[in-house]
Structure formats: C-alpha cells, structure tokens
Write a structure and sequence with these properties.
single chain, 800 residues, alpha/beta, Leucine-rich repeat, LRR (right-handed beta-alpha superhelix), Phosphorylase Kinase, domain 1, Transferase(Phosphotransferase), domain 1, 13-stranded mixed beta sheet, 27% helix, globular
C-alpha cells in the first residue's frame, strides 16, 4: 500500500473525527432559519437542556453542534438522553433537518428513532456527506431516494430492523467510502449497481437474510479494504474477480452456503491480513506458492469446510490459522505452533481427529490418494470395501424402510379417516347445548360461561363491521364488540367450512381451570352450522406487540414506550401463566404460540395469556407419544427456529426468551419472527449478553428506557435469563418455574456476591443462566466459540 493511500485511510478519518466528533469553538450561529430549525429539532427529539441549553448560542455551547461561517455543518446526538417527556415520544421526528442548507454530517447512532427513514431525506438534505443511524430502532425499508445523496461518503444503517431488499439506487453514491447495512433483516440480492462504487473502502452486509450468488461486479471495487458478507444465505462459487482487489485486507464470508474452491488469486492478495471463510462448503487444498509479504501478520479461519490435502508452507507465515473440521491429512510439520487449530481432520498422531474409515471414504469419493496411516493395500481396501458395503446396506435399508413406512402411513390415514367420520356422525347426532365434538374429543360445555345467541353476537359486533375487526387469528377472525349493557367483549369467529376448528383442549382447559393469567372465557355461541363463536373478556391495553410503543395523544407522529417497571411486570405475569400451564396442570400444557401478540394486557397492564387454540399436552418420550407425532398433521408438527418440536414445554421457554429480548431491546417483532430471520436477529443480539460484562448491554438495550444503575442491572439480568431460554439445546433451557423465580429476584441472577445457597436453581447442575455458550458470550459474529480470532472486531469503523 502506498504512502499516499495510508495517509488517506488513516490520517483523513482522524482529522474528520477531530472536526465533527468534538465540540469546537466557532463563529456564532448567524442564520436565523437554521437557529429556528435547531430549536425545532431539540423539541421534536426531546433533547435535554444539559446538552442543548436554550439561552446560549448553539455553535458555541451546544454539544455535538459544529458550525462554519455562522452555519450548521454537523449535528451529533449520538448517546444523548431524552427528557422525561421526550422519552415518551421516541419517534423519527427530524423534519427540521431540511432547514440546514449546509449540513454535512448527521450522527444519531444509538438514539431511538422509531419509524422508517423518511423518503424526503434523500431529496431535501442533499448536502449530507456523513449519515450515521446505527442502532436507532429504525424499521421499514431503505428508501430509494437515499441514492440522491450523491455527495455521501459514509452511510451507517446497521443494528436496526430494516426489511426488504437493498435498493439499486445505492449504486449511484459514487463518492461512498463506507457502506454498513449489517445486523438488519434485509433480503434479496446484492444489487449489480454496487459495481459502480469504485471509491468504496468498506462494505459490510453481515447478519441479514441476503441470498443467491455474490455478483462478479464486486470485483470492480478497486478501493475496497474490508468486505464482510458473513451470516447470510449466499451460495454458489465465490467470484474469482475478488482476487483482483489489490487493496483488500479483510474478507469475512463465514456462515453462508458458498461452495467450490477459493479463487487462487485471493491467497496472493498483497494486503490480506484477515480471512474468515468458516462454516461454508468450500473444498480444495492449501496453496503451495509463497504468499504476500504481509501474511506473517495474517489471521486465517478455514474451519468447518471440506478442505483436504497436506499442510503447506502457508503455516510458516501466518500468525493464526484455524483448520479444524476439514479433511487435511498426513503429518503435522514441526513448524506448526500453538496458533493453529487442527481438530476434526485426518492427521496422524494428533488428538481429536476423524475416524480412519470416514477419512478414507472422503478421499475415495473425491478420487484422491489418502495417507494410509501405515495400512497395507489389503487393509485399506478392506476399509473402503467395508464402507461401500455399508452404503449398500444403507441403500437397501432405506428402500425397504420407506416401503414399510408408506404402508404404515396408509393404514394410519385409513384409520384416521374412519375415526373422523365417526366423530362427524356423533357431532351431527348431538344438539347445540350438549357436548361439542371437536378435532379429537368431546368436551362438556357446562361451566364454559354464558350461552350467547347468534343475534346477540351480530348485534355486539355491528354485524362484524370492519371497524370492529382486530386481526386474523390462527383458528379464526378476532372482533371486538359491545353488549347491550355496555360490557366490552372479544369475539373469535371460526368458519367451520374453512377447515379451522375450535380446539378441544382450549375448551377443555376452560372447563377445568380458571387461572387469573389466562384470558377469561365469557361464553360461546355454537348454534350456527357454518360458524362457531367464542367470547372472551375485552383487554383495554390490547397485546404487548401494540403496547410496547403507543402513539402519543398529543401528537399522532410520535410514540411513547413502556417504562422498565411495567415491562418487568409484564414479563413476570407471562411467566406466571406459563409456569401454571407447565407445572400445575396435569398433564402439563404447552401453549405453543407465545409471542408478544398473545400476551394480552388489561387496563392495569396485568397479563392474560391468549391464543390458546394452539395449546396441546406436553409430549414426553414414551412410545405412544412418538406414534402421535407421526400421525398428526403438518400444522401441528411445527418446529421452532431451533428445531425443537413445539409440543414440548421447552419450546414455550424458547419463545418466551424471544419475548424477553423484545422487552429488553425494544425491537418489535423478535418474538413473532421465524426461521432464518430469528437466527439473524439472535446472532446480532446474543453476543452482547454476558454474565461477565454488564456494559455490553448498552449496545442492545432499548434506547428509550430511562434507568439508573440499579435498574440497568435488572435489564442486564433479564437479558441473561433470555439468553438461557434461547439455548439451542432444549435440555439445557431452564424450567418455567425457575424462570419465574429468577424474574422475581433479578439481582440474584447477576450479582457475584450471592452465596451458593442463594443462587437460583436450574434444570441441571451443568446449566446456568449464562447458558451453555457462556464461554463465548463475548464472541462476535466473526468468531467461533472454540477459537477466539484476534483482529479488529468491527468490520466498518466510523471515522467520527
């Protein structure tokens, strides 16, 4: 790298930091319109007098304001705290930015801006060169109008809940040096227009849901120094054009679905100092040729792929290399030092290696020579013959097993059809006031509240007027209504002919229990042949998903958030309801639909669990329950994001962990997310939850929460509990009764001075509130749990 390039990369950002990152003395603000715009911004964001005092000149004394020639050129509110009133309205209220005609920099990182980026930002504030909106709680898509900010040099949008695709218009930002869109929920492809960003130094798209191939156009970015595409769903071959990026120093593409060989040119990049391609499907061998002169300081992570062959002189030059869980073979050279991880390969005389048969089979499949470990040709042939014989046995077993399974399923389906036919006849023979035959059993309706007439339901909901419609539930449409006496109710309408049913277990639950944490069932209306109705008590505060942030009565464009005490109250209430279902019902009941929308709130924010139509009895490990799993329909055999059967109590614990994260981070939608989106969200949050370091919490905590040191400790403790609930192994998740006790005694979860007798119980002696991954709580997305990779952990660092 030339001295001129080093000066641009290191000294210029430093100068800019000194210019915009601190408050410097400058000329007084002389433009009246800009002064008015600053005061409007102060009011709309609820900023404190401490930072922006009213009776002083903004250019001289306001923190984060930089002026030049009497005009505002920089605004930095990163890390600011709102006033008490402003904290109730954490909206994206920055309309007054249009009043600054010379604004170059706007930094609002870690300042809550609930809502989406306004389209006008790219149309009316065209002077911007630096825009930093990291960890602001922004939702919605990236507006295409951002492409109009043609002078933009740095754009940071990471750590939000941005959805949709990346707009092609970003390829118009020809001056862009840094583009950080990491830790969002973006999907789709990398736009081909990115090939136009020839001045780009850092591209970070990690921890999203992006997919398909990486376009070859990325190879046109001659100035690129950092490329991070990790934790996405990219596939196919890595474009060989990356090898032409002579400035590239850091490549992180771990945890994708890449295949094929690494392009040879990548190994020879002159400035390459960090390469992480772990957890993909790469194949090939290490290069034999000498690498660049800087490689002695390099860090390579090739683990969890399918690389093979012998070790080469590459290991003489690097400072750290992780080759674990590949298929390397042969001897370990004498020059291999402690900074090399080699587990899970096919080496001689090295611990924790793959079995001989597995290694021989892999090399045989590839048509390659395999180091025989001293075996004779006959012995090795025996090994391979044994492997091939086992494959034939497995093929035959699979064929006959499949035929047997098909026969078993055919018989089961016939029996199931006969069973349902018999149940339908029983239903038709009954009457509306007698037992109700549902999907699996008959339930006595005695004690299930009032018997409502169809006319009464129609009148209460104004003939199911759209104005009374709330949402589409799993088992039916939900409406609100008012009875003649003024009592507010909730009506679930189930269309029988649509295939939806009234859950037998839900009605059975209400016929046997009456717990204060379950939404009260007021009655039913079953007289209509086409539609059935269940009537519940009305919850004035709605559900948690709609109450975490609510519109301010005085301003429709702003929001207020729940305070910490109320959030903790809601968490404890939900835990009480689940603990009752799991530990006081016999057999235990699994809710199966725990998320923010099923946690209902009365006028005092007391919790009532709703959405019980998905509930089922807990599935143990006995034989009959395994047969039941085979027979049930796909709709009832759903798995969680971690692969857990939802009929287990541990699934409720997993879902509850996501609810706790939603309360801690303020990120709406975590508990309702599924599959890949859940994985991406958790990978962006969980590394910041550690029993050893409370300060990491500030990276993910809801910025709208106003808490002192003691309450911050409670937020930290709840996050630790949430992480233990989200353990990938169901057996290591705590039981709900222990979670409830922990929430009621948050200080004992994280304080080191708690004695052993005071510590909260967990499911097994090997578990802890830190979870099984506590040793890697501080691991970042680039690192593996087993090997902490050195190097800069932030892919794109702000220069301000």
């Amino acid at each position: 790298m030339s001295m001129h390039t080093i000066t641009n990369v290191i000294l210029l950002p430093l100068l800019f930091f000194l210019r915009f990152g601190t408050t410097l003395q400058s000329d007084p603000l002389s433009i009246r319109a800009e002064k008015a715009a600053l005061f409007t911004l102060r009011s709309s964001l609820g900023l404190r007098t401490k930072e922006w005092p009213i009776k002083s000149d903004p250019c001289s004394t306001w923190v984060g304001i930089q002026c030049e020639n009497g005009s505002v050129i920089g605004i930095n509110i990163s890390g600011f705290k709102r006033t008490t009133i402003g904290n109730q309205n954490p909206a994206f209220a920055v309309d007054s930015l249009v009043g600054f005609t010379n604004l170059v920099s706007f930094n609002a990182s870690r300042f809550l801006l609930i809502g989406s980026i306004p389209d006008w930002l790219g149309v009316r504030v065209k002077t911007l060169k630096f825009l930093d909106l990291r960890f602001c709680g922004i939702s919605g898509g990236i507006p295409g109008s951002i492409g109009n900010l043609t002078g933009l040099i740095e754009l940071y949008l990471s750590g939000n809940v941005l959805t949709g695709g990346i707009p092609d218009s970003l390829g118009m930002l020809l001056s862009l040096s840094v583009l950080d869109l990491s830790r969002n929920v973006l999907t789709g492809l990398i736009p081909l227009s990115f090939g136009n960003l020839v001045n780009l130094h850092c591209l970070n798209l990690s921890s999203n849901g992006l997919s398909s191939n990486v376009p070859a156009q990325i190879g046109k970015l001659d100035s690129l120094v950092v490329l991070d595409l990790s934790f996405n769903a990219f596939s196919g071959l890595l474009p060989k054009e990356l090898g032409s990026l002579r400035s590239l120093r850091r490549i992180v593409i771990r945890d994708n679905n890449f295949s094929g060989e690494l392009p040879d040119a990548i190994w020879s990049l002159p400035g390459l100092s960090f390469l992480d391609v772990s957890d993909n499907n790469f194949v090939g061998s290490l290069p034999n040729k000498s690498l660049n002169g800087n490689v002695t300081k390099s860090v390579f992570n090739l683990s969890h792929n399918m690389f093979y062959g012998v070790l080469t002189c590459v290991l003489r030059r690097v400072s750290f290399i992780d080759l674990s869980y590949n298929y390397f073979q042969g001897n370990i050279p004498d020059y291999v030092h402690d900074a090399a991880f080699l587990d899970g390969n096919c080496f001689r005389n090295w611990p924790s290696q793959r079995g001989l048969k597995e290694c021989a089979a892999f090399y045989s499949m590839k048509g390659l020579l395999f180091d025989t470990f001293g075996l004779t040709d006959g012995s090795l042939s025996s090994v391979l013959h044994d492997h091939k014989s086992k494959r034939r046995v497995l093929v035959f077993a699979a064929v006959f097993g499949s035929l047997g399974l098909i026969l078993f399923l055919v018989i089961s389906v016939i029996l199931l059809i006969l069973f349902r036919y018999k149940n339908r006849k029983t239903t038709q023979a009954g009457n509306d006031e007698g037992p109700l035959t549902t999907e699996r059993e008959s339930v006595n309706l005695m004690g299930l509240g009032e018997l409502f007439t169809y006319e009464k339901i129609v009148s209460a909901t104004n003939d199911f007027n759209d104005a009374n419609f709330i949402k589409n539930g799993h088992s039916g449409d939900i409406f609100k209504g008012v009875l003649e006496g003024g009592t507010h109710i909730i009506v679930k309408r189930v269309d029988v002919h649509s295939g939806k049913i009234i859950s037998a277990l839900e009605l059975d639950l209400y016929s046997k229990i009456s717990h204060p944490r379950l939404i009260p069932l007021l009655g039913h209306c079953l007289e209509n042949e086409k539609e059935k109705f269940l009537i519940y008590k009305y919850m004035p505060k709605g559900d948690l998903s709609s109450s975490l942030y609510t519109k301010n009565c005085s301003d429709d464009d702003t929001l207020k958030s729940l305070d910490w005490i109320t959030r903790l109250k809601i968490a404890i209430g939900a835990a009480e309801g689940l603990s009752y279902l799991h530990h006081e019902c016999s057999p235990p009941v699994v809710h199966r639909d725990i998320e923010a929308s099923s946690i209902l709130l009365d006028d005092k924010y007391e919790v009532r669990l709703g959405s019980l139509s998905e509930a089922c009895t807990h599935e143990g490990d006995n034989y009959s329950n395994r047969i039941t799993r085979l027979l049930r329909s796909p709709q009832t055999s759903e798995q969680s994001a971690s692969g857990v059967i939802t009929g287990m109590c541990s699934y409720d614990v997993y879902c509850f962990g996501k609810v706790l994260l939603e309360l801690v981070t303020g990120r709406i939608g975590i508990s309702a997310s599924r599959d890949l989106i859940t994985k991406d969200i958790l990978e962006g949050i969980l590394p910041y939850i550690s029993l050893e370091d409370k300060d990491l919490m500030t990276n993910i905590m809801d910025p709208s929460l106003v808490v002192d040191e003691d309450l911050l400790e409670e937020v930290w403790a709840m996050a630790v509990i949430a992480k233990s609930c989200l353990d990938p192994k169901p057996s290591k998740r705590p039981l709900m009764r222990f979670i409830l006790k922990a929430l009621e005694n948050l200080s004992k979860v994280v304080r080191e001075d708690s004695t052993s007798s005071e510590k909260l119980p967990v499911k097994s002696s090997k578990s802890s509130w830190g979870g099984s991954s506590s040793s890697s709580c501080n691991s970042l997305p680039y690192q593996t749990a087993g090997s902490q990779l050195p190097g800069n952990v932030d892919g794109c660092l702000s220069t301000r």
